[in-house]
Design a protein that fits this description.
4-stranded mixed sheet; alpha/beta; 2,3-Dihydroxybiphenyl 1,2-Dioxygenase, domain 1
Amino acid sequence: MFSHIFIGVSDFERALAFYRALMPVLGIEERFCDLARPWAGWQSHPDPRPLFVIGRPHDGQAHAAGNGQMVAFLADSRDAVVRAYEVALKNGATSEGAPGLRPEYHAHYFGAYFRDTEGNKLCVACHSPPG
């Protein structure tokens, strides 16, 4: 469905450190990093797409986190949701909702919400029953 998701950042080095800590917890591999541009991307596995990309906005204007936008990463277990949340907070994220069941979405929805170092809202969710 998606080719890529791009989110803007102002402090690229800080954001890069944050995502380099978070993505391995979710099993997402870094595909490229160009400090001169600056931008970096992570890819799905085994396919090369969709990509998740961070970088300075193309128009040269300052980054501003949006209200109502969120990127949700899929976790393969509830434990991975908890680990990702802990790593995110340890690396500068702010909590928007601790890991837990969200039965208003569906019976097995287990998610955590946080904002990255740039204020972008992220979610990590597992849709599988425990076990």
